[in-house]
Amino acid sequence: MDKRAARAYGISARCLFGLVFLALGACSALPDKPLRAVQYDFGPGTTVVATGNLPPLALADVDAPGLADGGTAVLYRLGYADAQQLRPYTQARWSVPPAQLVGQRLRDVLGQRRAVLGANDSAALARTTGPGPRLLRLELQEFTQVFQSPAASTGLVRLRATLVESTLLGDRLLAQRSFSVQRPAPSADAPGGVRALAAATDALAQELDAWLETVGR
Can you give the pLDDT at residue 54? Predict the structure, then answer.
């Protein structure tokens, strides 16, 4: 190989090496595949056999005006820094919107001692057999993990319950009460917040059940 050919070969080899190096660099600069958010629910729930010794109750879908419509993010507040700001965990989601989770858990607990109907089922029953069961309306006002410090937090659930009776002149208010329940989180992260919120919802369900018994349902 003469000097001219050797020089050309050396230049070509250096160019090829440079292209390979740039290609490898470009590949390493590509963003990682985004991680899929972990989904949570309340677990399998109670296994207590229903006794059904109380009058039936109609339960409307839980309303959640203060929460994002249809949102499933696990939310938290920094009570020690900016308690007015709701923050979402980026990699934690509820399997369905919190209002649905809370409604199903309350239905499970209340259904242990009474038949629980949907609002539409109750209306249909009233049209065919006379006055239907009383209707319980629920408004979920807070469902967040609240940090009292960077290492300590609680699951906070606030809910307003309204019991009404349907009449020919419209709904008649029978009783109303607001509930607020907190349970400590076992860890200062999303899994800890999920467990605390599930425990707080279970405790609230028991309080709601006891209150309904005092007002005749």
Answer: 84
